[in-house]
Design a protein that fits this description.
The complex is a heterodimer of chains A (325) and B (427). The longest helix of chain A has 20 residues. Chain A is α/β, with parallel strands linked by helices and 325 residues long. In chain A, helix 2 crosses helix 12. Chain A has 2 domains: 162 residues, Rossmann fold (3-Layer(aba) Sandwich), CATH 3.40.50; 153 residues, Aspartate/ornithine carbamoyltransferase (Rossmann fold, 3-Layer(aba) Sandwich). Chain A is globular, with a radius of gyration of 19 Å. In chain A, helix 2 links the parallel strand 1 and strand 2. Chain A contains 13 helices and 9 strands. Chain B is of the alpha/beta class. Chain B has 2 domains: 101 residues, Urease, subunit C, domain 1, CATH 2.30.40; 307 residues, TIM Barrel, CATH 3.20.20. Chain B is 29% helix and 23% strand. Chain B is built from 12 helices and 21 strands. In chain B, the strands form 5 sheets. In chain B, strands 3-2-7-19-20-21 form a 6-stranded mixed beta sheet, with helices on one face. In chain B, strands 11-12-13-16-17-18 form a 6-stranded parallel beta sheet, sandwiched between helices. In chain B, helix 4 packs across helix 7 and helix 7 runs parallel beside helix 8. Chain B is globular. Classes of the chains: A alpha/beta (325), B alpha/beta (427). Chains A and B meet through helix 4 of A and helix 6 of B.
């Protein structure tokens, strides 16, 4: 019941909430559609009319500039109308319930909610309660899921590395609080990645991390040895006051990605980061700006992947692009 | 009392406290049981109740049920929830002190009892607050609470500020001869958690409550109980380790008892998968191994009672993102069929299940209920183990229909409940 909520009765993708339960074929199709949009974003006129007349609401209960901007650009390039609602400073602070907020915006005859919320499960909750014609795309819920970020990361990896079945991928940092890591792990495994590793101190790992389908390393040099992709996660400042870590300095010393550490990985390994980066905390500037870094490519890919997901969820687009399902 | 004479005929009478399990009759005069078995000499029956095919047993004693009154009548009332209790075969309800107006004065104790008496559907035993206002700082007026009829005190979900306050509170309660009910949870380890620290919580990225939140509190309380001589009862356990610690203490002769909420004997952490807020409960559903050990602890008697941990909610309480929803299940009306499933699963025999629902909890609280002994108050439950029904919530008497068992097919339902010889529920 929980996973099928993403599909309608005909088995078509209706909401995009989590990678959990999605097939390898569907993930590949998202990347294929994104590929076809990449050319759109490089043209002089960066627009396709696929979602003309549709209204997409960016419903952000948690501050985010980058994710909201790329969703907004993606929607505009699909010719949709976009409404940005920043709830962090809006209705719920006046005591309105989450459901009332949703009902009110729903009454404006919109077609899609792009939701960012600080509580895990918020996107599922909204998807379960919206009117039948409205789709929900999860733009990050608590520590649970950030599926479009995971897909843009997969898309980036595919561009550089091709076949997932030969890859070793290491995700380094605060796995415990990371919706990005959870979604990436699901996507990497669904795509048949040879080995998915997480590298973190025990305080930043959830219970039974192996159960998520990863190999666990507490030592970053061992964790990076021989990998093809290094994904660094952002370290929040709250982790120090919450007694997860002693200091930024100690974290950088023992887990930060430096050129020396990166040398343990395969020579052609790529370095990724969902952003925004903390230079000198989880990653050295020389690595972030170095030749192996694909961090800015990820940002650009974010628009194409979000265009793909939004158009697929709202439907009726694929044939127009000549992409077969 | 009119002194009406009732005979419950033809049923299978199960009265574990007296070792009875036989096809016999129960004779009631006025509000008291007069005999089980042969008709007493000169007993002129006014009304005969046909119990053919039914189980006849003592009315159940529920150690933890929230009625929400006074203060949260938008969730439920004493009238609605005692009616639900009657429909569930529960004749005695112990309600925790964490009503909106905390039960920390004799006036509140009397108010609850009087309102329950005026409704007349179930007996309500208010549990007094251990600390004033449940603030965890100062002792409540335990002697006055006892004089008002409280037999137990507790702090419900509210933490006690520090171990010194807990030690003094236990000492003072021991001095008053009051049972102390502890729902073990170390607040710092609970933090802002809402699900078990296990596979499902890891996958869903929800804030977790580790088992140690429970076991650390059990360990601390056991040490202080030993030191102070207080009689302690642990309510609503969730973990295998806590059961083992209590079993060990019991084997060393410590006066400590424990219960388990009925849903903890069935559901595990997987119930919250898909963010089902109806499965948001405190303490959280834990692993399959924990659930199995709770069942084993119940079978061995380490856990002497099954309680409902009934928490009726208004619909809005569950309409939010999972971590923002209120924990708790409306569970009175599913308590019997869920308990009967333990018989089918081979965990306990029917007589032991009834013992854990009636006499076991009565003994823990020191109440003279939970038996069909001659001279006891005629609190009787009749149920039919064959009756099949589907949980829809629509025909519930509880005002809260928050249950993770929606759509479940159950077997077994209460057909009649007598409170002091008076029929308070009949299906």
């Amino acid at each position: 019941m929980n996973k099928s909520i993403q599909f309608d009765a005909a088995g078509r993708l209706r909401h995009f909430l989590t990678i959990d339960g999605l097939s390898r074929e569907l993930l590949v199709r998202i990347m294929d559609v994104a590929e076809s949009f990449s050319s759109v974003t490089e043209q002089q006129v960066k627009k396709v009319p696929l979602l003309r007349g549709k209204t997409i609401v960016n419903l952000f209960f948690e501050n985010s500039t980058r994710t909201r901007n790329t969703f907004e650009l993606a929607a505009k390039r699909l010719s949709a109308d976009v409404l940005n609602v920043n709830i962090a400073t809006s209705a719920t602070s006046k005591g309105e319930s989450l459901l009332d907020t949703i009902r009110n915006i729903e009454a404006m005859h919109v077609d899609m909610f792009v939701v960012r919320h600080e509580a895990s499960g918020a996107a599922h909750f909204i998807a379960r309660h919206v009117a039948p014609h409205i789709s929900v795309v999860n733009a990050g819920d608590g520590s649970h899921s950030h599926p479009t970020q995971a897909m843009l990361d997969m898309f980036t990896i595919r561009q550089y590395k091709g076949d997932f079945s030969k890859l070793k991928v290491a995700i380094v940092g605060d796995i415990l609080h990371s919706r990005v890591a959870r979604s990436e792990i699901l996507a990497l495994n669904a795509l048949g990645t040879a080995e998915v590793r997480v590298v973190a101190p025990k305080t930043l790992l959830p219970d039974d991390p192996e159960g998520l389908g990863v190999k666990v390393f507490h030592d970053v040099d061992q964790g990076l040895a021989g990998v093809d992709v290094v994904i660094m996660l952002r370290l929040q400042k709250e982790r120090m006051s919450g007694a997860f870590l002693p200091s930024e300095h100690e974290y950088f010393t023992y887990f930060g990605l430096t050129e020396e550490r990166l040398a343990k990985a395969n020579p052609d390994a790529i370095v990724m980061h969902p952003g925004p980066i903390n230079r000198g905390v989880e990653i050295d500037s020389r690595v972030a700006d170095g030749p192996q870094s694909v961090i800015l490519r990820q940002v650009g890919n974010g628009i194409a992947v979000r265009m793909a997901v939004m158009s697929m969820v709202l439907g009726g687009y694929v044939d127009a692009l000549g992409v077969t399902s | 009392m009119s002194g009406e004479r009732l005979a419950i005929m033809g049923g299978r009478v199960i009265d574990p406290a007296n070792g009875v399990d036989a096809l016999v009759s129960v004779y009631i005069a006025g509000d008291l049981i007069v005999a089980v078995g042969d008709k007493p000499e000169g007993f002129a029956t006014d009304q005969e109740i046909d119990a053919e095919g039914q189980i006849v047993c003592p009315g159940f004693v529920d150690l933890c049920a929230r009625l929400r009154e006074p203060g949260q009548e938008y969730k439920a009332t004493i009238a609605s929830e005692t009616a639900a209790a009657a429909a569930a075969g529960v004749t005695t309800l112990c309600c925790p002190p964490d009503t909106r107006r905390v039960i920390d004065t004799p006036a509140l104790v009397n108010l609850l009892r009087e309102r329950a008496d005026s409704v007349g559907k179930a007996r309500v035993i208010p549990i007094g607050a251990l600390t004033r206002g449940l603030q965890g700082k100062e002792l409540s007026s335990m002697m006055a609470l006892k004089a008002a009829g409280c037999v137990a005190v507790g702090n419900a979900y509210a933490p006690v500020e520090n171990l010194l306050v807990l030690r003094r509170a236990l000492e003072y309660a021991a001095n008053c001869g009051l049972l102390v009910i502890v729902r073990p949870e170390e607040p710092a380890l609970r933090n802002r958690g809402c699900v078990h620290d296990g596979a499902v919580g890891s996958r869903l990225g929800l804030p977790v409550i580790p088992v140690s939140a429970e076991t650390v509190a059990v360990a601390q309380t056991l040490v202080l109980a030993g030191q102070t001589g207080a009689k302690v009862h642990f309510g609503q356990l969730s973990s295998a380790r806590a059961v083992a610690m209590i079993a060990e203490a019991q084997s060393q002769g410590v006066a400590v008892s424990a219960d388990v909420a009925v849903h903890q004997l069935h559901l595990t952490e997987s119930a919250v998968d898909g963010f089902d807020a109806n499965a948001h409960v405190s303490p959280p559903f834990r692993s399959q191994a924990d659930r199995d050990c709770l069942r084993e602890g119940l079978a061995k008697g380490v856990l002497g009672a099954i309680c409902s941990d009934h928490q009726p909610h208004d619909p809005n309480a569950k309409l939010d993102a999972f971590p923002a929803t209120e924990p708790g299940i409306s569970s009175l009306e599913t308590m019997l069929p869920l308990s009967l499933q333990l018989v089918e699963a081979g965990v306990l025999d029917l007589s032991s299940v009834i013992a854990r629902l009636a006499h076991g909890p009565a003994v823990i609280m020191g109440l003279g209920a939970g038996t069909l002994s001659p001279g006891a108050r005629a609190d009787v439950c009749l149920f039919d183990t064959r009756l099949e029904w589907v949980v829809a919530g629509t025909d519930w008497l509880s005002r809260g229909i928050n249950t993770p068992f929606y759509g479940s097919k159950f077997k077994g339902r209460v057909t009649r409940t007598l409170l002091s010889g008076r029929t308070v529920h009949c299906r």
